[in-house]
Amino acid sequence: MGSGARGKSRKAASRANSRDAGKNRDQVKAASARRRKNGTSGPGAVRRLFNWIARLMWFVAWRVAMVLAVIIAASVAYTYTTLPEIDDLLDGRSRGSVTLLDKNDEVFAWRGDHFGGVVSAGSVSGHLVNAVLATEDKRFYSHFGLSARGIAGAVWINVREGRGPLTGHGGSTITQQTAKLLCLGVEYSHDQWESEAEYIRDCRRGSISRKIMEAVYALAMEYKYTKDEILSIYLNRAYMGSGAYGVEAAAQRYFGKTAAFLNPQESAMLAGLLTAPTRLSPTTNLQRSQDRAATVLRLMNEQGHLDYERTVLAQDNPAVLSEAAEARSGGYFADWVMDSGPEYFTRETVEDVIIRTTLDNRIQRAAEEALTHVFDTKVREGSLAQAAVVVMSPNGAVRAMVGGRKSQVSGAFNRATMARRQTGSAFKPFVYAAGLDFGYGANDKVKDEPYCLDVRGSGRWCPENYKKEYHGRVSLVSALSESLNVPAVKVSESVGREAVAKVAEDFGIEGELANGPALALGVSDSTLLEMTGAYAGFLNGGISVAPIGLISLRLARDDVSLMKAEESGGKRAISEKTARELVWMMHEVIETGTGARAKLPDREAAGKTGTTQAARDAWFIGFTGNYVAGVWMGYDDNTPLTGVTGGGLPADIWRETMIRVHEGIPPKPLPMARPAGMASKSVKLEKEGGNVIESIIKSLLGGNR
């Protein structure tokens, strides 16, 4: 075969092979297609599996969604039927409030859950509505009760900050917050919860199931009420700190005005309280409250509620407590009145109660300013010493009470009423009152000398004077003026301890009195209020008075008083003649004796100093023709005072208080009588020598007491 024939043969073979290869490729593609169609290839099988799963999930999901939708719709519909009318939701307190009025019928304090009255979203300041929306729910008027964006954002913030997704930021709308305030319609019951605090904790649980229930309740509210009605419920029920429920109560408490007249900075401060009402309360920390308000003002500006100029102006002039509001904490006096009233109308009231009191805010400020002035100018910085002041009228009406150096407090330890301390020489007027009533005169003499008594069960007891000096024969007025101990004990032993104790008890000293000879030196305990009330009896002509603070009590919805202070004249503890002579002796304490630092520049005054053993307590109690005032000073833990006696700092506080109290008041003379010289007992004392009291005991009482 020639070369040409062989070449043609090779080409023909090549074309045949190509055709065979093409057929094979077509057959492979066809087989591959068949395999894909039959699902036998790897990638195709996976895709088909995923597609099948997706279709299955969609098939299940929309059916589950339909079921859930039906359940939610049914739940919302049922909840809708249980919702009460709007008027029943505006005041949701389980307790009532107590409003306290001073002697001029001006409000000075609130206690309990204060509710200022029903307001609506349309009746309050527009600035307040804008501030609340800016800080709590800027889309309130556009959502249907829930905010998916807000919930997602809150969950993200909580997770990012290392908390649980439902712990911390809630992302709740105002509608949801209102549902929580309503506790999903569950009212407080004593039978179900041990305390109201437990009830509130239960209402604020953050579990998933609770969140779902809140969402259902919120949706039902959106169908039942208008947006303004929901906002009105929120504005009336939200806790705003310091016992105020609702924006009206808060506006009155903090700014002394109604919520309708709040300016932007005041509105921002109230709106800022909603996140943490107790911590941010302006009565707790004004600066912290102002800082929060500045943030709210910025949000109001960013959301178009307040222009730039007014925002800057409001931030530069932050809201402050009104002068009236600052005085309305009530302090120690309000606490005392609340404790002294019937529990079911004060601490546990379910009604709104109004109490008229004896408080005089002018005198209260005078006492607070005097105490602050003395501590600022005469007490070393950093001292932990405490003091208390009580001022009352001669009839026992308490006009001012300062129970410690911090005056604007509530629920604090009241040293004027709760601290029972030894009275020291402040007790001696009761000794001399008993002596004068027994027949002694202010000019009668007693020998101040070393003196001892055998006390049954205790052995020999020898009282000493404060300066450990003795003065020989001294008059009773001098003994009281110089606060000598030995003469006081001798007079007490002469007339009998029982007589001295009875005089003290008749004047209102209620604590258990010592039954030994040290009774005369004030080793028994009493409170400042008791002692001041007892001294008022001296000024009252020897007729005891009971300190009173509550004049009348009535329900806010009624005009008739449910209770009034008893118009009691007290009982006669000593004769009027004795009282007038004793007042003169106490006047000499200030004129020439240990109380000289208490002397007033323009009027007569009488009083007595008191310093207990180791100077653990220092007292000064005294009076003018107009008012009685008592001062106590010491440490809460009984640490001895350093260099302080009753005639020192307590007398200074008393003087500063009384100068301020009497501003603009004409001087009124004291009801006192300087006695004529009574020589009968003095002559007898001179004849019988030094054992004066012992001789009197034997001759008049027939033995030792």
Name a few traits of the molecule:
five-stranded antiparallel sheet, elongated, five-stranded mixed sheet, 18 strands, 705 residues, alpha+beta
Largest sheet: 5 strands, mixed
Rg from Cα: 42 Å
Sheet-strand content, in percent, reads 5-15%
Residue stretches low in confidence (pLDDT < 50, at least 5 long) are 678-705
How large is the count of helical segments?
A: 25
| Spatial order of the strands forming the largest sheet | 2-1-5-14-15
What structural category arises from helix and sheet content? alpha+beta
Instruction: Please report the distance between the alpha carbons of the first and last residues.
Output: 169 Å
From the spread of the alpha carbons, the general shape counts as elongated
Helix percentage: 40-55%
Mean pLDDT equals: 85
Total strands: the figure is: 18
Structure summarized in a few sentences:
With 705 residues, the protein is of the alpha+beta class. It has 25 helices and 18 strands.
Write the layout of secondary structure elements.
Blueprint: H1 3-38, H2 42-82, E1 97-101, E2 107-112, E3 114-115, H3 126-136, H4 148-160, H5 174-181, H6 196-203, H7 208-224, H8 227-237, E4 244-245, H9 247-255, H10 264-273, H11 277-280, H12 286-302, H13 308-316, H14 323-327, H15 331-340, E5 353-357, H16 361-378, E6 386-392, E7 398-402, E8 421-422, H17 428-438, E9 445-448, E10 453-455, E11 459-461, E12 472-475, H18 476-481, H19 485-495, H20 497-506, E13 525-526, H21 528-539, E14 550-555, E15 563-564, H22 576-592, E16 606-611, E17 617-623, E18 628-634, H23 649-661, H24 679-688, H25 692-701
Parallel strand pairs: 1-5, 3-4
Antiparallel strand pairs: 1-2, 5-14, 6-7, 6-18, 8-13, 9-12, 10-11, 14-15, 16-17, 17-18
